[in-house]
Amino acid sequence: MNNIKIKELLFHKIEDVIPIIENENLTKREIQIRISKSKLQKEDKVKVQQKIDFAFKRISEPLDLQMKIICFLIPFGLVTRIGSNNIFDVNHHRKLGFKKKVRDFYSYSFLGFLTYLFIIIILISF
User: Fold this and answer.
1) 56-98: per-residue pLDDT in tens?
2) What is the domain partition of the chain in residue ranges?
3) How far is residue 22 from each of residues 11, 90, 98, measured CA to CA in Å?
4) Cα 63 to the chain's mean position, in Å?
């Protein structure tokens, strides 16, 4: 935020605000202080604050339980890649700024993969 003014955030999309927050390594509280000190009109401050709230929500939003189970049972969407639709489009979610969702997708898929690998090893050893 040192390089970008609070007023400029009014004109950015939420997915464009997320990299700004991450690059500047700012907390939500620091941004709120800067918004309150800015010379924007009240309704513009509310708009910027709402955009920041949405950005932080996207950054920290986890996968829902149903998707966690699907990622565990179908690691990395292997079965759906053969078909025409993907259950979870990683690139799309990454572009929109869902950092935790993407991390959770990889974590649960990896756990699912390890589980299948462990089952195969057990079956082969008998």
Assistant:
1) 999 999 999 999 998 899 887 765 555 444 678 888 889 999 9
2) 6-60, 65-125
3) 18, 19, 13
4) 9
